[in-house]
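Inverse folding, one chain.
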């Protein structure tokens, strides 16, 4: 599937008066941009009140229904965001959600986000109702073969001109991470606005940050290097990095690691699976080694914590995203360090 196209979404919103949106996928940059575009669209069309619901096993559907049915004093149009981090809800909750969708006010704008769906979820009534009545927007991670064309298009939007060699250099540097790619292009646009940028300048720009990039942090975490983990975290924070760039990098390797542990991949199938998950080269080596350091329980807890940090970063939940990111990274590094000594 093609990567999320922000320009295409803008055009679709201009052509059609849409009020229900289903976001499927969890690529960090695409998710952020899709929400930003839809929230701006809502603001421009006088959706003045926002309600956000994050669905977990303890979610009170009756309270959600009550909140949605209640109207303010002046009956303002509302934007309703429903986030389902696990991508699944049980049968009873599904019935409640289906009833909410059936009675949803035509004056409100609805955004539902799921990281991904399985065959069972797609057969449930609530999902079919969403599919039928919503504009579906895919938020997939980019395929390796599509990254260079995506980078070229992105560079044009930022009014910078990169030659083929420079595009390849950026592509190799970001390892398929669209959020990291966007950050790198935006930095180049700030350093060299409205001009052609030579390969040497791109190379210099990349080398200036290579000591403190999120990919190296992930390697330190999974290798159990607590000292380098802490120092890199501090440097990234001082440089003004967004915690989402760190959690995105961690998520990129932790999710395939969990699936491997759960499905018990071995030998050649393990290598094939990691490669399909866009884990190559040096990253492939340390991820394979790290699989022996972490249990399924460790990885599930880490991915759950990443979801919580994501909510904090987006303002959905209270808390300090940097503090929680630091705790997670150091906690994982400690587990890996302890396992290496056994």
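Residues assigned per position:
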């Amino acid at each position: 599937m093609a990567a999320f196209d922000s320009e295409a979404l803008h055009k679709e919103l201009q052509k059609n008066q849409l009020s229900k949106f289903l976001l499927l996928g969890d690529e960090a940059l695409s998710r952020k941009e899709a929400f930003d575009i839809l929230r701006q669209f809502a603001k421009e069309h006088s959706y003045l009140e926002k309600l956000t619901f994050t669905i977990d096993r303890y979610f009170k559907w009756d309270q959600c229904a009550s909140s949605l049915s209640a109207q303010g004093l002046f009956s303002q149009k509302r934007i309703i965001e429903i986030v389902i981090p696990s991508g699944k809800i049980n049968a009873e909750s599904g019935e409640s959600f289906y009833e909410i969708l059936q009675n949803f006010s035509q004056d409100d704008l609805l955004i539902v986000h799921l990281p991904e769906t399985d065959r069972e979820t797609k057969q449930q009534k609530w999902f079919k109702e969403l599919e039928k009545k919503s504009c579906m927007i895919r938020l997939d991670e980019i395929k390796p073969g599509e990254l260079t064309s995506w980078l070229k298009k992105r560079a044009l939007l930022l009014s910078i001109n990169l030659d083929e060699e420079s595009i390849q250099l950026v592509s190799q540097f970001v390892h398929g991470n669209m959020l990291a790619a966007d950050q790198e292009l935006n930095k180049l646009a700030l350093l060299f606005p409205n001009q052609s940028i030579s390969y040497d300048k791109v190379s210099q720009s990349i080398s200036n940050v290579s000591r403190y990039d999120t990919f190296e942090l992930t390697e330190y975490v999974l290798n159990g290097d607590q000292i380098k983990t802490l120092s890199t975290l501090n440097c990234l924070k001082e440089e003004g990095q967004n915690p989402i760039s760190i959690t995105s990098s961690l998520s990129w390797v932790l999710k395939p690691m969990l699936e491997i542990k759960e499905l018990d991949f071995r030998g050649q199938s393990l290598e094939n699976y990691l490669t399909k998950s866009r884990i190559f080269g040096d990253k492939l080596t340390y991820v394979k080694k790290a699989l022996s350091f972490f249990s399924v329980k460790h990885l599930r807890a880490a991915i759950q914590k990443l979801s919580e940090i994501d909510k904090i970063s987006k303002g959905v939940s209270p808390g300090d995203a940097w503090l929680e990111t630091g705790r997670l990274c150091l906690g994982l590094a400690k587990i890996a360090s302890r396992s290496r000594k056994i």
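The beta strands are 20-24, 47-54, 77-83, 109-114, 135-138, 161-162, 196-197. Residues 212-341 form a domain with the Zinc Finger, Delta Prime; domain 3 fold (CATH 1.20.272.10).
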